[in-house]
Specification:
The complex is a heterotrimer. Chain A is α/β, with parallel strands linked by helices. Chain A is 34% helix and 26% strand. In chain A, α3 (96-103) packs parallel to α6 (137-149). In chain B, α4 packs across α14, α5 runs parallel beside α7 (128-147) and α13 (257-269) packs parallel to α16 (316-325). The longest helix of chain B has 28 residues, at 168-195. The chains are: A alpha/beta, B mainly alpha, C mainly alpha.
């Protein structure tokens, strides 16, 4: 399988502060990978760089063989990459349905539309005309995922879906993930909950202070290896 | 981070410095200038005396506008309201209440400060850009009110008659010394205030009101205080200006041009520094003297300058120079200097000192 | 009694014009939180463009009006994209200074090119035609057309913002301009588009204003204040609110004029300040 997304030596800065020090990550067609690591390790920074919200050098991010690093953020979704941002970031002035419709602004063809989103998350249909931020945390997360899906991406990036949500809600949301990627969509899932991340992904990368400290097959890596890589314990 | 931990303990001593070499020079220069100005009635011509009084008015107006916007975080395009109240207050007290105009100037400033209290209650209902325009509306209310009062000359204004019997030379000297006193007081008090704990909390509040409030800064009271001080100072400038001018009208007293001048001065000088308005006022005054004959072209040039400077030099022209060359004439911030770096005459190279110095410079601006 | 009704009627008609002035400002502040001190001067600028089209270029009024709308859109888009986009951020000071600078430049360029004399656009006899509906109450055709235009545009703006993809993009950009990019909306182009539309609204206002009164290059600041007051009285975030706010301002001014010509504008300002103190959220605040 050829790589859908490949980052080569990706670096990222917030002003003068360097957050990423040369990240090499690949995502193949149809696979779900997980990014784990503690707070501040650089996982969200990585997703923002791929989504174009942070400037990078063109050759550091390659999507379908095309260098897209540093491309305008508004052009990324048209290529087929969608981000569910950390903290949901729904539009407060818009209703649930309007948030979803905005997700389809770039009009990419595919199976995701209002009907299929409502079929995936029935709770949203009853509340479609409510202000988006009036919903519960879990429902807002569903709206955020739906909004990203409406652009019919080939690569879905989810930044900490579990943030601030009760465990039972988190399980419910991740239960929808297989249905989402069923037809070959690739996904990058950033998760602080390591076990959850391992269950939903085939491969993983562990970030630690802006570098990849460990990577491998989610099913085969040992807990000790992850703990060491997660906390940066030097052996 | 590793650098700090690896530093040998002996060289971890440091001191907190306030003054810079440039600032010590600047203070001396200012004292010399102040003495020269004070003695001006004996060696300068009438025009020069009048110019200084005008310059002083521009300068104090700009410093007060800078205080409000650069330190209080409140951008107002209606400060001319207090300028006009200072002018008309002085005139009413002098012409109709028999008060000496030189005493009437500070008295009118007190009146303006009192008026500023209810005005602030109304104006503070608005935020940001709308606060700015709201203050303009309030200034217009004052202008229209006075313009409809025929006793004060209505729309065409009136003259200050209380000094008719005073010999011209004496009047001009007294006006000049009053101007010098007002400028010195304004600069001195602002300098002391901004260096103090209160001044620090003001900068914190401007940068992030929520964070400042969580550190115990009473944001509402601080804002009101700054607004009142700015009103008082602006009224002093107004009273002084019309004392020097001897004639006042609603259009001159409450004109939005004053705010425009204030903005230009701050643009040249940079917002939120103490020396900025001083430099800006000097440059602006000189420009005004020589170029205002060109009327509309001069104004077009000023407007274009305002646009370009804001777009490309957001710190103001002096701000740009000051950052580039590290010059601070009136340092209100604090720098951390590691003594062993100093003795070896090297600039701070490690990350910690650089970070500390950068953040205290950011605090200053 | 008729005098009272006449004050209200004339106030409504005047207020329609103010509402029209204010629509553009409401849109711009709503989408990009921009404080445009040159708003009134843009109105005056487009008035003088209309003079140039009908005067220097000798175009018939209808053609000139259509051209004006096109020129206005292009000018608004360009000004926002090239200049104002650089200063459209949460800090109000840069946009205030830049638009202040634009205000001064526009006023003085117009004075240089056209001289300071006030002038108006001739519409034949249309501007003075009216119908008398009752003793002491006459409705001018031009003010009625203005009222109709304001109503139509308020409907149009409300529809644009509430029901179209572009309107959703506007509202979303105003909520979170960073994240809206993830949906393919470039906030820079969105801002420019919003300013372009605002300029079209301003062009309509400019055309109707110039037919009603003689306009001089320095009229801008006064118009800015009326537009601003209409927005605040009506409540921010609602085009119908802006419409109502304009009405309220118009009525207040007419009442003031009735007592004494010098107090007309003053009473408008006082009513504005009173609304600010008593009901700061305005008459029709957005409830979302």
């Amino acid at each position: 399988m050829s790589a859908l997304l490949e980052t080569r030596g990706l670096t990222a800065f917030y002003g003068d502060f360097q957050a990423l020090f040369g990240i090499d990550v690949t995502v193949a067609q149809g696979e779900v990978i997980a990014l784990i690591g503690s707070n501040g390790a650089g996982k969200s920074t990585f997703l923002k760089s791929v989504a174009g919200l942070l400037r990078t050098r063109a050759e550091q991010i390659v999507y379908r063989g095309e260098p897209v690093g540093g491309a305008a953020a508004a052009s990324i979704v048209g290529k087929g990459i969608a981000l569910v941002p950390e903290g949901r970031r729904l539009f407060a002035s818009l209703t649930v349905e309007e948030n979803l419709l905005l997700g389809a602004y770039c009009k990419r063809p595919g199976r995701w539309n209002l009907q299929s989103i409502y079929a995936l998350f029935p709770a949203l249909q009853e509340r479609r005309h409510h202000a988006a931020t009036a919903l519960s945390g879990g429902q807002q997360q569903m709206v955020a995922i739906g909004r990203a899906l409406m652009s019919n991406p080939d690569l879905l990036m989810c930044d900490e879906l579990s943030l601030g949500l009760a465990p039972v809600i988190v399980r419910e949301i991740y239960a929808a993930l297989p249905a989402i990627v069923a037809d070959g969509m690739s996904a990058i899932v950033v998760e602080q909950d390591v076990q959850l991340a391992r269950r939903v992904s085939s491969r993983f990368y562990c970030f630690q202070e802006g570098r990849v400290s460990l990577s491998g097959l989610s099913a085969q890596v040992s807990d000790e290896a992850i703990t060491q890589a997660y906390f940066g314990v030097v052996t | 981070m590793n650098t700090l931990l690896n530093r040998p303990a002996a060289s971890a001593s440091f001191e907190v410095r306030r003054a810079t070499r440039a600032s010590r020079v600047a203070v001396l220069v200012l004292l010399v200038i102040a003495l020269a100005v004070a003695s001006a009635p004996w060696w300068a011509g009438r025009d020069a005396l009048h110019d200084f009084v005008q310059l002083a008015s521009y300068l104090v107006f700009a410093m007060m506008w800078n205080l409000l916007a650069g330190y209080g975080g409140m951008v107002s395009i209606g400060q001319q309201a207090f300028f006009g109240i200072g002018g008309y207050g002085m005139l009413i007290l002098a012409n109709y209440c028999g008060v000496s105009p030189f005493v009437a100037v500070p008295l009118a400033a007190v009146i303006a400060t009192v008026v500023a209290v209810p005005v602030s209650l109304v104006a503070f209902r608005l935020e940001g850009g709308y606060f700015a325009i709201g203050t303009w509306v309030i200034a217009e209310v004052f202008r229209l009110t006075i313009a409809n009062v025929s006793v004060l000359g209505g729309g065409s204004g009136t003259s200050l008659t209380a000094l008719q019997d005073v010999p011209r030379a004496l009047r001009e000297s007294l006006t000049l010394w009053l101007a010098l006193a007002i400028v010195a007081a304004a600069v001195g008090l602002l300098y002391v205030f901004l260096r103090s704990k209160a001044g620090l909390s003001l900068t914190a509040m401007r940068d992030n009101a929520v964070a400042a409030s969580s550190q115990g800064v009473d944001v509402k009271r601080a804002r009101l205080f700054v607004y009142l001080v700015s009103a008082c100072g602006t009224a002093l400038a107004g009273g002084l200006y019309f004392l020097g001018n001897l004639r006042i009208s609603p259009d001159a007293a409450f004109s939005a041009n004053w705010t425009a001048f204030g903005i230009f001065i701050v643009l040249i000088g940079g917002l939120g520094t103490l020396e900025g308005p001083i430099l800006g006022a000097l440059i602006f005054f000189v420009l005004n003297k020589f170029l205002s004959d060109y009327g509309t072209w001069y104004l077009i040039g000023l407007g274009a300058l305002a646009i370009l400077v804001t777009m490309f030099f957001p710190q103001g022209l002096w701000g740009f120079v000051s950052r580039r060359f590290g010059l601070q004439l009136f340092p209100v911030g604090r720098r951390v200097v590691f003594l062993d770096d100093e003795t070896s005459a090297r600039p701070a190279t490690d990350d910690v000192t650089k970070a500390l110095n950068t953040s205290s410079a950011a605090h200053r601006a | 009694m008729n005098t009272l009704i006449n004050i209200i009627v004339q106030g409504v008609l005047l207020g329609a014009l103010y509402g029209l002035f204010a629509m553009g400002q409401s849109l711009v502040f709503g989408v990009m939180r921009l404080t445009n001190t040159a708003h009134g001067d843009f109105i005056v600028l487009l008035v003088f463009v209309l003079f140039a089209l009908t005067g220097f270029a000798h175009l018939p009024l209808a053609v000139a009006l259509i051209l004006l709308l096109g020129i206005a859109f292009g000018a608004g888009y360009a000004v926002q994209y090239a200049i104002l986009n650089r200063v459209s951020s949460r800090d109000p000071l840069p946009s205030l200074i830049v638009t202040f600078g634009l205000s001064i430049v526009i006023q003085n360029v117009l004075q240089q090119v056209f001289s300071a004399d006030p002038r108006s656009v001739a519409t034949g006899s249309f501007e003075s035609q009216s119908i008398t509906v009752a003793p002491g109450i006459t409705l001018g055709y031009l003010p009625l057309v203005t009222l109709a235009a304001t109503v139509v545009l308020a409907f149009a703006m409300q529809w644009l913002f509430g029901r179209t993809p572009l309107g959703r993009a506007f509202r979303a950009t105003s909520d979170d301009r960073e994240i809206v990019q993830l949906m393919g909306v470039s906030y820079r182009r969105t801002y420019a588009l919003a300013m372009g539309i605002a300029f079209v609204l301003i062009a309509v206002a400019a055309a109707l204003y110039s037919m009603r009164t003689a306009v001089s290059p320095t009229d801008g600041p006064a118009l800015l204040l009326y537009a601003f007051e209409a927005v605040i009285i009506g409540g921010m975030g609602s085009f119908w609110g802006t419409f109502l706010g304009g009405m309220a301002l118009g009525i207040a001014q007419q009442a003031g004029f009735y007592f004494d010509p010098g107090w007309g504008i003053w009473l408008g300002h006082i009513v504005f300040l009173a609304v600010l103190v008593i009901r700061p959220q305005g008459l029709l605040p957005k409830t979302a």
